[in-house]
Design goal:
By secondary structure, the chain is an alpha+beta fold. It has one domain: Lrp/AsnC effector binding domain/regulation of amino acid metabolism (RAM) domain (Alpha-Beta Plaits, 2-Layer Sandwich). It has a 4-stranded antiparallel beta sheet with strand order 2-3-1-4. A hairpin with a 6-residue loop joins strand 2 and strand 3.
Length: 107
């Protein structure tokens, strides 16, 4: 499973929906959605500031994460939705050992 951080901000209609049905209903809806693509929710937090919601999820991969982003983003309830791929320290260690053939611009 891959790990992702989802950052989202509601638009006015989305906030009205949260106000009407409550935060717990949103957590349940997101859990159901991520489970439908084979994943699970690790944490879900509401916030104020730049984003209204921070959710960490485990998903089978980028295709499942993209499916989730498409479904949620097309709902019309959000002003902003971003998926951030999260990597463990072990994954970074593995990446740093990988040989890469790269020439910077102008070299």
């Amino acid at each position: 499973m891959a790990k992702y951080l989802i950052k989202a901000s509601y638009n006015a209609e989305g906030i009205k929906g949260v106000m009407k049905a409550g935060g717990t209903s949103r957590v349940d809806a997101v859990k159901k959605a991520i489970e439908s693509v084979g994943g699970s929710v690790e944490s879900f937090y509401f916030a104020f500031g730049g984003n209204d919601v921070y959710v960490t999820v485990d998903a089978p991969g980028n295709v499942a994460a993209a499916a989730m982003a498409g479904a949620v983003g097309s709902s019309g309830a959000l002003a902003r939705y971003e998926t951030v791929v999260l990597l463990s320290a072990a994954e970074i260690d593995e990446a740093m050992k990988m040989a890469v053939s790269y020439a910077p611009p102008g070299s």
